[in-house]
Amino acid sequence: GEIMSSFNDFNLSTEMVAALAAKGFTSPSPIQALVIPEFLREHANIIGQAQTGTGKTAAFSIPILETITRDGPIKALVLTPTRELALQVSDEMYSLIGNKNLRVAAVYGGASIEQQVKSIKKGCDIIVGTPGRVMDLIDRKVINLSDLEFFVLDEADEMLSFGFQDALESIWASLDENAGGKTKIEDKQFNTWLFSATMSE
Q1: At what angle do helices 131-139 and 165-178 cross, to 10 degrees?
Q2: Which among 83, 77, 95, 116 is positioned nearest to 20, based on CA atoms?
Q3: How far is it, in rounded angstroms, from Cα 63 to Cα 161?
């Protein structure tokens, strides 16, 4: 299709266009132009290859923030390989929320799990975190994935090279359990997006 040259071409909410303009973003980067229209469709499972610094965080954050509404359980889970990236992604999401009443919690190891539990229990729509800590919080029944709409693996290749494979598989298994035995992927109940700078099988 034709490549979008302005954020106004995406049918985004006026709040989102304003939040983007406030950040100095008027036209989408190549990855944003390619994936945002796909993400805004009803359901999409996408693998995107993008170097860091190409605007991929906004590419998945914009559609998530445009789509979800606050009504109980967590709607989006973004997994990142490092604490730094988790904080970067959650900051970027906050900068795009504008006046929508949505809350993001960043969760990662090496910080107090009690604080993180408290902030999630206060009400949280989006979790951004490292696989190990997310797994802990699922085990503690603090993170409820029954209503999940978006599952994003950011820097997926890094997560595997950092040895997160077991945690990722457990998280995947708990997503399946929440689907009542049917895998949600087949039912297309949530969207899975995978971003990686390098892409292997």
Answers
A1: 40
A2: 95
A3: 28
Give, for all 201 residues of the chain, the pLDDT tens digit: 456 678 888 889 988 999 999 988 889 988 888 888 888 876 667 777 777 667 889 999 999 999 998 888 899 999 999 999 999 999 999 999 988 889 999 999 999 999 999 999 999 999 999 999 999 999 999 999 888 999 999 988 888 888 898 999 899 888 876 655 444 445 546 788 888 876 555
Q: Residue 135 is which amino acid?
A: M
**Would you tell me how many other CB atoms lie within 10 Å of the CB of residue 180?**
9
Answer whether 153's CB lies under 8 Å from 79's CB: yes
Go through the chain and tell me how many residues it has. 201
Rg (CA), the chain: 16
Please state, in angstroms and rounded to a whole number, the distance separating the CA atoms of residues 73 and 123: 8
Give the count of beta carbons closer than 10 Å to the beta carbon of residue 158: 18
Residues 6+ apart with CB under 8 A from 12: 20, 62, 66
Q: Side chain identity at 125, as an amino acid letter?
A: D
- Supply angle C-alpha 87, 78, 142, rounded to 5: 90
